[in-house]
Amino acid sequence: xxxxxxxxxxxxxxxxxxxxxxxxxxxxxxxxxxxxxxxxxxxxxxxxxxxxxxxxxxxxxxxxxxxxxxxxxxxxxxxxxxxxxxxxxxxxxxxxxxxxxxxxxxxxxxxxxxxxxxxxxxxxxxxxxxxxxxxxxxxxxxxxxxxxxxxxxxxxxxxxxxxxxxxxxxxxxxxxxxxxxxxxxxxxxxxxxxxxxxxxxxxxxxxxxxxxxxxxxxxxxxxxxxxxxxxxxxxxx
Length: 237
Description:
Layout: E1 5-9, H1 14-28, E2 33-39, H2 49-63, E3 67-73, H3 82-95, E4 99-102, H4 110-125, E5 134-135, E6 138-139, E7 147-151, E8 161-164, H5 169-177, H6 180-183, H7 197-213, E9 219-223
Parallel strand pairs: 1-2, 1-4, 2-3, 4-7
Antiparallel strand pairs: 5-6, 7-9, 8-9
Helix pairs in contact: 1-5, 2-5, 3-4
């Protein structure tokens, strides 16, 4: 399946919080979108990998993506090495996304920065002709995404791209709330930064602030490590 967008998250729920509105908007336009979570979030304070897997599937349906997969890498100890890069390259060459979205380069959770580097480096080596890989016993051709963007997570950052999600903020919120084990506090769960009332409100007011910057109601922010080219200056309008 050829994808328009492939979104990577270090943990189930990263994608929803960082770029859920952009994904929902893209699928509403008929774009082919997929999600790949790198770990099962097994070190999360609350919930279990089994719970998060069910929650991730539910959220994927809400966002309207074509599929959601999990690489099963080790939570808390993500490694940007040859072995993991090769596994990511196989996915990139198989799905051939034009755009890759991934974690913030610098963030509170160390897995986020490591995931950002892993995906960025994998996207580069995926385009190398002499790197040989196969998927389902078939030899793969090189493929390098045209655009790689990092979505905002815990830390604030100065964005390079801001996407209007005004019509999709409710879908983003619904997708996030699918992860009840992570974002809903009850008598049986420990208090964490992401199940606090302040955090849930921050999803909304952060989106509102980025919307303010581009004269819309709600938006999501992204950074790019590379220059973003346009064919015509009017493509910016």
